[in-house]
Amino acid sequence: MKNENKKKENEMKNENEKKEKEKQENVVSELMRRLLIGTRIMRRREELYLDLDTAAELLELPVDEYKNYEYGQTEIYPDMLLKLAQVFQTSPNYFFQDLYHFQK
User: Fold this and answer.
1) Which helix (H) or strand (E) holds 94?
2) CATH number assigned to the domain covering 2-103
3) Is residue 89 a contact partner of residue 98, using CB atoms and an 8 Å limit?
4) Which of 9, 40, 50, 63 is a plausible cystine mate for 95, CB 3.0–4.6 Å?
5) What is the pLDDT confidence band of residue 7, given thresholds at 50, 70 and 90?
6) Where along the chain do its domains lie?
7) Model confidence at 24: pLDDT above 90
8) pTM score, two decimals?
């Protein structure tokens, strides 16, 4: 009986550790995704010779809010992604190109 309890405790501990590791990996994946997309946004802005202020103005955003997208600090929702693509004269897929390579 004592061995069975110990075995169950170990199984639960291993399961909890596995869940925690998956959770941490998901957080890292999310941060990497935001950073890679933000880098693509910055790259496209620079390709168009736009400074931060001008890009923010074109997107009708405060500069700090726009910077958060470039630095990966803010989640980019589909409506903003479409607006970025339109203003930066590219397709929404452009922002995911590095992400595809990262996931392989």
Assistant:
1) none
2) 1.10.260.40
3) no
4) 40
5) confident
6) 2-103
7) no
8) 0.74
